[in-house]
Design goal:
Blueprint: H1 2-8, E1 15-22, H2 28-38, E2 40-47, H3 50-58, E3 66-67, H4 71-79, H5 99-104, E4 115-121, E5 123-127, E6 150-152, H6 156-166, H7 176-190, E7 193-196, H8 201-207, E8 212-215, H9 217-221, E9 232-235, E10 242-250, H10 257-267, H11 270-280, H12 287-290, E11 308-309, H13 317-329
Parallel strand pairs: 1-2, 1-3, 6-7, 6-8, 10-11
Antiparallel strand pairs: 3-10, 4-10, 5-8, 5-9
Helix pairs in contact: 6-7, 7-13
C-alpha cells in the first residue's frame, strides 16, 4: 500500500508524512489545514482494529511515521521497542491537554512515548425506525426477534469488555471464572447477531441492513443522511464498557520524525482540535478547544463514568485469546 501511494505521489516534491490511523479518524479539513500550514503532503492509510495495526507493523509493514494505538497497545508497542520517545520541546500544545486526563495515565506515565488524541468508548446504536421496544443496555442482543439484524464488533477486548461489565466485572479481569461467564453471555448474543464486524457496521446500519450495531458513533453517524440521524439512538450502557484513550505515537523507523512532531503539535492547536471534535461529536480532551467548539458531543464525560480503561494484559492476554477463539469458532 505504501509503495503504491509513493508511486502515485511521485510527482509531488513536497515533504511527506505517512500516517496509519483508524478508519474515519481524522477529518479531511484538519489534514488539509496541516498540509497548507507546512507545505507538506500527508499520505493516509487506515486500519479497523488495534490488532490489525499491530500485526501489520510487526509483519514488516514499514514506511509509516505516526500511528494511533489505544492505551493497551501503547504499552505493548513501548515494550516491543516499536515507538520513538516524544520530544515535548517540539510540542508546546501538549499543555492544552486536560491535566486531569494526563495525571490518570499509567500505561505511559509522563507521556514519554505517546500524546493523547481522544478519549471515548464504543457503544450501541439502535435504529428506532425498526426497533421500538428495548432497554438501553446489552439486553437488546438477547432479543430473538432481531436475529440477523444485529452486529457486534470484531474486536476481542471491546466485545468481552461489554460482557464483563454487564456481569459486574472489570474489563481487565484475569479471573478465569469471570471470563467464562462473559463468554457464556457473548455466546447468547451470538445466537442473534448476523456477524462480528469492525469494518462495515456503519454502512450496514445506514442502509437499513443492520438495526442494532455495537460500534463507534463516528463510524455510524458519518455514514448517515442528516434526515435519518433522528432515528438513531446511540448509547453507552449504564453498566459501562471499555474506555479507550487513543494516542499518537511516532514509529521507531519513521523517516520524518520532525514533521511527525509538527503534526502532533498541530492536532492540539485549539482551532484544529475544535474542528476535530465538532466533526466527530467527541468530548474534548483539549481544554481551550472546549470554549471554541460549535457543536455538542454525541456523548459526554458523564456517559463514560462507569467505563474502564483497557490495559495491557501482558501474558494474560492468552486467556482472552483462547476464549475469543472459542467464541468465534462455535
Amino acid at each position: 500500500m505504501i509503495a503504491a501511494m509513493c508511486l502515485f505521489s511521485c510527482g509531488d516534491s513536497r515533504e511527506k508524512l505517512y500516517i496509519y490511523n483508524w478508519t474515519y479518524y481524522t477529518p479531511e479539513e484538519v489534514i488539509k489545514g496541516f498540509e497548507e500550514k507546512y507545505n507538506v503532503k500527508v499520505i493516509y492509510d487506515e486500519f479497523a482494529s488495534n490488532e490489525e495495526m499491530f500485526a501489520k507493523l510487526k509483519a514488516g509493514g514499514s514506511g509509516y511515521d505516526i500511528t494511533f494505538p489505544s492505551a493497551d497497545y501503547v504499552s505493548i508497542m513501548i515494550k516491543e521497542g516499536m515507538v520513538e520517545k516524544i520530544d515535548k520541546s517540539q510540542i508546546p500544545n501538549f499543555n492544552n491537554i486536560d491535566p486531569e486526563l494526563l495525571n490518570s495515565i499509567e500505561y505511559d506515565k509522563g507521556c514519554e512515548y505517546s500524546v493523547p488524541y481522544f478519549k471515548g468508548a464504543s457503544g450501541v446504536a439502535v435504529n428506532k425506525k425498526f426497533v421500538k421496544d428495548y432497554n438501553r443496555d446489552m439486553s437488546v442482543y438477547l432479543k430473538p426477534e432481531l436475529k440477523g439484524r444485529m452486529t457486534l464488533l470484531d474486536d476481542m477486548r471491546e466485545v468481552m469488555g461489554f460482557a464483563l461489565k454487564a456481569n459486574g466485572y472489570s474489563v481487565n479481569t484475569i479471573n478465569p471464572a469471570e471470563l467464562e461467564t462473559a463468554k457464556d453471555l457473548i455466546l447468547k448474543w451470538r445466537e442473534n447477531i448476523l456477524k462480528f464486524d469492525a469494518e462495515s457496521f456503519g454502512k450496514g446500519f445506514a442502509s437499513g441492513e443492520f438495526w442494532v450495531v455495537q460500534g463507534y458513533q463516528e463510524s455510524i453517524l458519518l455514514e448517515m443522511e442528516e434526515s435519518a440521524k433522528a432515528d438513531v439512538d446511540f448509547f453507552i450502557p449504564e453498566a459501562g464498557g471499555p474506555l479507550y484513550i487513543d494516542s499518537m505515537v511516532i514509529l521507531k523507523d519513521s523517516k520524518n520524525k520532525d514533521l511527525a512532531h509538527k503534526f502532533i503539535n498541530y492536532i492540539h492547536e485549539p482551532e484544529a482540535h475544535a474542528k476535530f471534535v465538532d466533526y466527530f461529536g467527541f468530548p474534548s480532551i483539549n481544554v481551550p478547544a472546549r470554549s471554541i467548539r460549535t457543536g455538542k458531543p454525541v456523548y459526554t464525560e458523564d456517559d463514560l463514568k462507569n467505563c474502564e480503561l483497557k490495559l495491557d494484559l501482558g501474558e494474560n492476554l492468552e486467556l482472552y485469546n483462547k476464549i475469543w477463539e472459542e467464541i468465534k469458532v462455535k
